[in-house]
């Protein structure tokens, strides 16, 4: 996960840079990471598995196979579905078409979130346990896998939507470069530090809101769907 070494104007030609694809790109970064944290908290508290944080699911899977986490099938289902969502939507984005890559990727993410919303209502947010929770964890993982393809960089700097382990690692590197590195790279490192802190703060804030929203568990994915659908208002057009 390295930062782009090119000058600032290069992201205008990068289809995976949020600055190229969206107006108000910092708002898009905040909204997507906040939504990921929001639904991750909901999924963990109701399914015993994450839908965005697949590093966490890998650990929970290992704990479950060692006999200490009964919800390991939910973690496995989410992990596999996340990979499927990322793989399928990446191909949808890469295919030729009249719509921009981000338009197609966002449409897939919204549709996957809408599917999760419907299943969450039909299966009563998995409170009966068993196959229902496994299916819902998979539906959430599919939606977050689609969302993970939306953008990979912000102003040429690597930023992640659905997982933040890499963000923490890069944040440490950027702070060190900002404080101790050569003068020529400090401005870029300072910008990267700000973006990392923004992503982490919004992901954590989303997790807090997702926890509070447990009082209305039937509608949490619906609120996430609305949040992602609102991004269509910020898509750049006419490029």
Structural account:
With 239 residues, the chain is an all-alpha fold. The chain contains 9 helices and 2 strands; from the N terminus they run ααααααββααα. It has helices at 18-21, 25-47, 54-65, 72-94, 101-122, 131-147, 165-180, 183-212, 220-229, and strands at residues 153-154, 157-158. It has a two-stranded antiparallel sheet with strand order 1-2. Strand 1 and strand 2 form a beta hairpin. Helix 5 packs antiparallel against helix 9 (220-229). The longest helix has 30 residues, at 183-212. It is globular, with a radius of gyration of 18 Å. 47% of the residues are buried.
Descriptors for this entry?
single chain, 239 residues, mainly alpha, two-stranded antiparallel ribbon, 9 helices, 2 strands, 66% helix, 2% strand, globular, disordered N terminus
Radius of gyration: 18 Å
Q: What is the mean pLDDT? A: 92
Number of strands: 2
Report strand %: under 5%
Helix segment count?
A: 9
For the report, how would you describe the main beta sheet? 2 strands, antiparallel
Q: What is the percent of helical residues?
A: 55-70%
